[in-house]
Design a protein that fits this description.
The complex is a heterodimer of chains A (113) and B (112). Chain A is built from no helices and eleven strands. Chain A has 113 residues and is mostly beta strands. Chain B is mainly β and 112 residues long. In chain B, 0% of the residues lie in helices and 54% in strands. Chain B is built from no helices and ten strands. In chain B, strands 1, 3, 4, 8, 9 and 10 form a six-stranded mixed sheet that branches. A four-stranded antiparallel sheet of chain B has the order 2-7-6-5, with no helix packed on it. Classes of the chains: A mainly beta (113), B mainly beta (112). The interface between A and B is medium-sized, with 28 and 25 residues.
């Protein structure tokens, strides 16, 4: 158990819908990272937040957004969902804002029908 | 953006040493190299991290040559439970911002 929690574990929805994925980092960690893993794209970095502020941006679509709240939990919002958004979404956390050991959550499996 | 390249797959037998190499030609001065292990339907798990020369911990060693354009993860005496995908991660060090780029991953299959 990494100490990172993600909810929900599974999510099934339809195209065009909007969903919110939630992540609680390990106690004491200030950074939260979001990743998308699909069969054909591998593990893709989406975005990083550090202590409430956006720190780094990767291959995140404009239809996706994220935020980190004062209690340091984070939410990833996915809107206008397409079939291709079906994937595993992982959240990770670390103590600081630069590259260091990241602890990954169990992931949320999203299926868009 | 630091791009990495790894072999797609490797096969080994129990008890053997496995070396997985990652190429990262445009690694930046501030970048560290990190390796993660991932089992199916689980999040990646940290294995080891280094900047230069050699780093060793209880599960693996990491060899980084002087030019730092590649790195090698060494797993001593693998077991069946080491069957997993291994990712090389290089932080793209632009002061204050880190764009994290995972490699393609190497699927290691350990057979009895």
């Amino acid at each position: 158990d990494s100490g990172v929690t993600q909810t929900p574990k599974h999510l099934i929805t339809a195209t065009g819908q909007r969903v919110t994925l939630r992540c609680s980092p390990r106690s004491g960690d200030l950074s939260v990272y979001w990743y998308q893993q699909s069969l054909d794209q591998g593990l893709q970095f989406l975005i990083q937040y550090y202590n409430g502020e956006e720190r780094a941006k990767g291959n995140i679509l404009e239809r996706f957004s994220a935020q980190q709240f004062p209690d340091l939990h984070s939410e990833l919002n996915l809107s206008s969902l397409e079939l291709g958004d079906s994937a595993l979404y992982f959240c990770a956390s670390s103590v600081g804002s630069v590259i260091e050991t990241q602890y990954f959550g169990p992931g949320t499996r999203l299926l868009v029908l | 953006l630091a791009k990495t390249t790894q072999p797609i797959s490797m096969d080994s037998y129990e008890g053997q040493e496995v070396n997985i190499t990652c190429s990262h030609n445009n690694i930046a001065t501030n970048d560290y190299i990190t390796w993660y292990q991932q089992f199916p339907s689980q999040g990646p798990r940290f294995i080891i991290q280094g900047y230069k020369t050699k780093v060793t911990n209880e599960v693996a060693s990491l060899f980084i040559p002087a030019d730092r354009k590649s790195s090698t993860l060494s797993l001593p005496r693998v077991s069946l439970s080491d069957t997993a995908v291994y990712y090389c991660l290089v932080g793209d060090g632009n002061t204050g911002f880190q764009k994290l780029v995972f490699g393609t991953g190497t699927r290691l299959l350990v057979s009895p």
